[in-house]
Amino acid sequence: MEMFTDRLQALTEEVQPKVVEWRRYLHQHPELSFHEVETSQFIYETLQSFGNIELERPTKTSVIGRIHGRPGKTLAIRADIDALPITEKNTFPFKSQNPGVMHACGHDGHTAMLLGTAYVLSQLKDELNGSVKLIFQHAEELYPGGAEELVQKGVMDDVDWVIGAHLWSPLPIGKIGIVYGPMMASPDTFTITIKGKGGHAAIPHEAIDTIAIGAQVVTNLQHIVSRNNNPLEPLVISVAKFVGGSTHNVIPGSVEMMGTVRTFNPAVQEEVAKRMEQIIKGITSAHGADYTFNYIKGYRPVINAETTTKIMEELVREIYGDEAIDYTAPSMVGEDFSAYQQKAPGTFIFIGAGNPEKESTYPHHHERFTIDEEALEKGVTLFSRATFRFLDQDA
Fold it and tell me: What does the pLDDT look like over 327-344, one tens digit per residue?
């Protein structure tokens, strides 16, 4: 067993320079959700060069690799590959070459880590007590997301467990974030349009003031969080866009608001949408205005299974020691990894990538976001070792 672990580690160390190289190439060539044409082709050709990997393209911009070992169960490992519509402000040599598009969330690193894992496991194919499915998923950043599309294509139909990881700049390098149960929220979106009567700002009584009505709506929506919701039940309602008016002395005839609702509980999700419309309808009708309200459910919440999470926690302790474990608090951000968890028990972890000395502490989706590349090795190590841990338990 010790000799096999040494061989596994040697392969991980061997591929590490390539993992960094792949991450930098992908960072230079980011592509937006559902448009990852060159990215997916690069992934396909790289996997093809390893040998021992069965490849398929279930959608135009995704890639699935499968490594078959002895007869047994199947573990799926997922990496997201898309970038964001952000203009990068970093100055390092491998910054984005695509204007207005940037890997500002670590997906370049996720892809590179899974490519490194694919290389390691392809060299150890005959040692696998089962199969591993490598999911290079498009469009995590844009609803309805690539995960749901791949699930509908049957990618998860023969999978017994699924794992994934997110490089996380708020978490220091060397730490691995473990969360049991609810980890990431359902990211719903809403749009509210209030229609009143425009007029002169100096003669407000002849208008129906949509700005004033909209302000009341924004304020009263927070009463759902503070007075209608159980304070022990996480809930966020944020109005992030409020557009109306064109100058200082004209009351606009309409305003538009957009925002998001975040929760871990489907029952709360249903109740919030109903309560929001009651409030909007009540305020607008009280002031003689009309409204439209559009509520779109986003990804399901990411909820880690206890069985798979325990395996991942034990593995982290075994490799890196107790001090590496960070029992990370759940986050209200969203992730479509949850689609895979509807089909098989699964766990999503955080890999610490923050380091002030390397300026890798900027928040995700920031124009200066980057990672400490030493975190990439931890992803390859954990994914590779987890593959054998999951498959060997049922051998």
Answer: 999 999 999 999 999 999
